[in-house]
Predict the 3D structure of the following.
Amino acid sequence: MLIKKPADLKYSDVTPKAVYTNRREFLASLGLAGGLAGGLLTSHPAQAGTKLEIASKSPFSTTEKINSYQDVTHYNNFYEFGTDKTDPAKYSQNYRTSPWTVSIEGLVEKPQKIDLASLMKIAPLEERIYRHRCVERWSIVVPWAGYSLSALLKAVVPTSKAKYVAFQSDYDPKQMPHAYGIQFPYVEGLRLDEAMHPLSLLCFGMYGETLPPQDGAPVRLVVPWKYGFKSIKSIVKIKLVEKQPACTWNMMAANEYGFYSNVNPKVSHPRWSQEEERRLGEFRMRPTVLFNGYEKEVADMYAGMDLKKNF
């Protein structure tokens, strides 16, 4: 199968033509094609569908075929907007993401509460085409836009006691009346070295535009070697801590969802094997690859660990 290289690939090639064209015509009618403001084509960086100014394409990108915009925006896990895969696209469209601030606190020398526009300027935005694997055995390839989380963490200066990074999602019952099935707010965590790894992406957009609400607007995490639920959406708090933080799915079912949750075909979910996955848009199953194909980049962090015990 012939796969285009990212440099040759236009988003109109991977997005259904009608969706691609109509979305841009709609945005143009709203006057969102104005001049640059803070690196965006609007003064409201949280507005979904706003074109991003991306400095470069990341060398970390895969050359695999990108999923369509339709796939990625209409088949989601986001329990704040419902438990069915089609619920987030239905119920999140009026979600208000402006103004938005993220609190960075805990074991850091420079704690702060930072607004979205300032957060987006910490480092130049890169496009990174990552594989994204969900624990339910489906996968996607997405052109995300953001910068390494390490840039933000270095800016706030972790203290010597900081060993982990805890994350918290927004939770607003008035805006999320379909939220049920798990404990809220949604929380996640990484070991500090995982959070500092250059592959860990603080993400503000995809397909060259700001994130739509169902995909975690206005800012989310993308950790491509882990199952998708580790890539927390709509972040409002980042806290550096000394002890391993609580994680939503680990609290809900510790026997099914471990703290690390690294993609591993040899560690089955209690209710199904993880040896195979299905790429959205395809019918065939394909073999699951250790660390979701990022073994060369991340395996050293887990040297000597029992990956079945520390799943």
User: Anything to note?
Assistant: The two ends are 34 Å apart (CA to CA). The mean pLDDT is 88. The chain has one domain: 6-302.
